[in-house]
Every structure is written in C-alpha cells, then in structure tokens.
Amino acid sequence: MSPPNATAQWPRRNGVTRRPLWWLLAFSCLVKLVYVFAFTDYPHYLFSDFGGYWERAMQRYQGVDRDQFQWAVWPPMAHIFLSWLFHVIDALGLRHWRLETVLTVNILLSTAGVACLYSITRRLTSSRRAALVVATVYAFWYPLVYFNAFVMSEHPATAALLFALWLLVRFPGYPAPLLLAGGVLGVAVGMRPAFGLMALPCGLFVLLGGPFAKVSVKHAAAFSIGFVVVIAAIAAEVNRISNGQLLGLSANGGVNFYFAQCRTREVVSSHAGATYWLIPPATADRLENGRIVVKRPFHDQAFFSDLGWQCVRAQPDLWWRNFLKLHDLFLGPLFPAAYSAIGFRELLPVFQWAALVVACTAPLGFVAARHARRRRIAALLGGVVAVAFATQYAFNAEHRYLYPVFGLLLALVAWSVVWVYRAWPKTRVALLAYGAVVGTLGVVVGAHAVWQRVKTPERIEAQWHHAQAPFSESQPAIEGQFGVDTLRFPPGRTLRHPAHGDIEGMPAMRDVAIRFTTCLDVATAGRFEFIVVSGDGFELRIDERFVAARRQEHPYRATHATAYLGAGRHRYSLLYHQATDALGVTAIWRRAPEEGGLMPAVGLRDVGDSGDGVRFLPPGECGVTRQGG
Description:
48% of the residues lie in helices and 16% in strands. It is of the alpha+beta class.
C-alpha cells in the first residue's frame, strides 16, 4: 500500500524528461573512460594503499583469507569486494584486462552515483533544471574524474551511500526499499567505517516519517534491521578471518585516532613476526613529527586510543588545532597524488578553491529553510554532511575525505539557491546579511594574508649567497636578505614560506647558502630539543656553540639534537646549504621530552613561535648572550 500522499508527493516522469539525464550519463561516462585510459599512467598507480588493496584482493582470490595481511591494518570489506569482482572478470574471459575492467567498474559506479544525485536533487528542489546542473557539475568535477584511475574503497562506498540516500528519499514510506537502504548503507560503512555515524541522521529521517511528517517505528525498524544485519555479517567475517582476534569492522580505528590527536608522522608495528608501517597523508611531509616503534598490533585499539587521549590531555589547545584541520579537508594535499595525470597540477588547485566556495554557500539553507519545502530531506543530507565533518574533527582530515559527501553539498547549495530565488522578497534581508558576514570574513582573511606578505616580521633574519663550500671559514659576500616569522620552507622548486609565499630574489638554484638567525629569550633554564629538516647540508649553532650538522648532500630528512640553555637570551644560527634538487628547510624546537616517549610530535613548535617560557626576538636584541651548558 502506498503511504499517505505518496502519489501527490512524487509525480512520475516520462522518458522525455529523463532524456537530458541519459545524455549526461553517457557523455560523462565516455569522458571518464577517455581520461583514465588516455590521459593517466594508470598501470603505475598500484602503489601504497592502492597496491595494498590489489594485493590483498589477489591473496583472497587465491584462497588465502586468514593471513594477517588480510585484516591486520585496513578494513577488509573493500578488498573482499574486489576479490569477488576478480571472479566475475575471469568468468567473462577478461583476466588479461583485470585492471582495466576494475577501473571501468569505478567509472560505472561513479556514473551511477551521478544518476542517484540527480534524483535526490530533483526531489529536494522540485526543479529538474537544478538537478541537471548539480548532476553535471558532479559528473565533471575534476578530482572525482581523476580518482577513477585508482583502486580505492571510496568508489563502491560512495556509490552505495548515494544509492541508500536515493532509496530513502524515493521510497520513504515503503518497508522493503527501506530495508534495502539500511543494507546498502551497511555495505558503505563496511567499506569505509568512517561512514558509521551517517546511520544516525538516516535512521532519524526514517523514524520521523521522511517528508510525510509521520512517526513510523515500523519503517525505522525495517531500515535498522537491514543496516544491522549487514554490519553484523561483515563483523562476523572479519572475526572469522582474524581467528577471533578482531571484533568490529576494522583494526585501525584506535591508531587513526592516535594519528589525529598526536600528529605523529609514522607508526611501525611489529607483532607476531610481521611489521607494518603507517604514514597518514596529512603528515607525510612532516618528518619532524617523528615516528614510534611499538611491539603492539594495530588491532590493539585500546592501546592506541589511550595514547590518543594522552595527547589530548597534553595539548590544551588541541580543540582549536583540530578545527583548523578543516583547512586540510579543503586545501590540503591530495592523496593519491599522481603528477603524471594530465591536468593534476593545473586543475586541482582550482577545484580545491571551488569546493571551499561550495561549502561556504551551503549554509544558505538556514536562510531558505523557513520558506522552503522538503526541509526534512535537506535535514537528512545536512545531517550526513555534518557527521562526516564531525568524524574529520576527531580523526584525520584529508582532502580526499571531502568527496564522498561533496555531491550532497552541491544538492544543498542548489536547494538553498532555488528557494532563496523563489522566496526572494522574504529572504533577501537574511541573504544580504549572510553575504555580508561571509564577505567580511573573506576580506579579513585576505587582508591578513596580504599583511603577512607586506609587513614581514623580523624575528628571523636571513642572508643568502651562492656557495659551493658553505661550511668553510671564508664566505662570499652576501647577495640578498629577507625576514620571516617562522623557519618553515617545505621542499619545492622555489623557496616558499606558507605565510609569506615565494621569497623574492630566491628562484630555484644550485649551491646556495642561507644563514637564518634569531634570538631565544628563555625564562626558565632547561634542556631543549632542536630539529632541522632539510635536504643537503646544514649547520646549527646556539651562542656560536655547535649543536648539530649534516655537511654532505643527503635526502630530505630530520635531524634531532638537544642542548641545555640557561635563563636569558641565546643566539640561534642555522646555516642551510642547498646543492641540488628542491629548496626547502624547516626548523623546530621544544623542551626536551622524556626518552622513549610515544608522543613525538606533542609540544613541537616552529622556530619563531614563542611559548613554553620562550620568546623569539629579532637577533639584534640578543645583546650579550649567555652560554648554555
């Protein structure tokens, strides 16, 4: 039996109204096929996690399902799905084109997601035109096209998430589709356990009657049964292949929480004769954040979770730092990064900023909600996006993790714009107020960036010159100088500071020596740890006393040293030499921690950042220095 008013709520559409969608799906699918197979080096993209998915799927395909490699680190459901796909591929006689077939399946899943998003937006906005615009933007969004060249768990997980949401909004009053929706969402969560909290807004939507505003325990029970049964089946399989060692969907929830709160660069786990290395993309370039080596398995989630909470307690400002991780979600590095893919360098920054604009526009829904229909569907999509962002707050936030819910953001923006337009006389004041707030924030952020570039702080002074032998007694004349507030220059083709941009007069070059000097004003004596991350050579002195050095060319790496500093002012001098390859150097300090600690990144500060009883002053204010030791 149909739910009340179902026929009136969801009018049927004929084939003519669907025709633009079919053309969009066909053309976008063709574009993705051409891009992946003609404009990427996809045979060489089976590295890191992506190669791991492939190897584990091959291992299971060959009948090995209880090896630690199957379950000890990554959620197993994704490679289990891939191993099933291998059987289908071989049955079709496509064994020699296994990778190509898998990538084609990626594209088909992506195309199906476009169709689901179109239908969701159509029902949300009551506008076929708005739905077609959203589907078109989503279909050709560059990062989503680019991702199809990789073997990733996001492909089946995102398609399953969008399909489950489509079932919820398309059949809100039918128990059987709701049962299926719960099961499909369970599959998405099995692939990506970080999706788990999304069941909460979905369950509330069903319980409260979807768009019909009628509480229905029966419908909520149908959805919940589908979800719980699938999750229980996946958990049972994970428990089986781990020989009872693992309860739940994956082994890495605890270590992911540890990474997010402690910001450690690398964890090496040795257990039962196996060794695993984990480096999250968010801190892959932060060599100064250190590594820990533990004789604990990653599925000892209580151990890693406890370490994470220790880091929370040791960093009173962590709540704000976790909020700032949203920067990485929009503008941070993208993993996987294949610079050989056509358009990656040129298009990715454009789409990163465009994604930020979309996210900033989505709150227009609060302006439109009072006058708009379909508020319950908007609340469902907004709830899914909100819990996804909340998960990023507690765990690692990486640019890739934005895209499973990016289509929902587009749909919410379309709903907001449509209803602001339809109720313009009633919404224009609120809209102008919202625009004024966002515009003011944008001006403030932009002005601050300009101020940082123009009004360069002088806490760290730098002088540079060309030199093939920078550590000899005789030095050439200084060729240029500049000032910055922190000593952080990530490796690149130019000497680039995160806040000040490219240093003028410092193009990419060979055999350049730069001496950085500043003054440490120490309130309380103690032992301090100094870290220098660089390629090629450096020499660090404090009060002209040698602390650490690497005088030969070497790969980009971190060097640690400790020194005792008495109360008073001390001259910090770092001579950095770049011989070949990329320019880049970063210097870090902190009060020396206890030996053997499992929180190597806690308390780290850039040279130039004051705190913990230490101020940084321009080197001219050091005066008479007081020797440490």
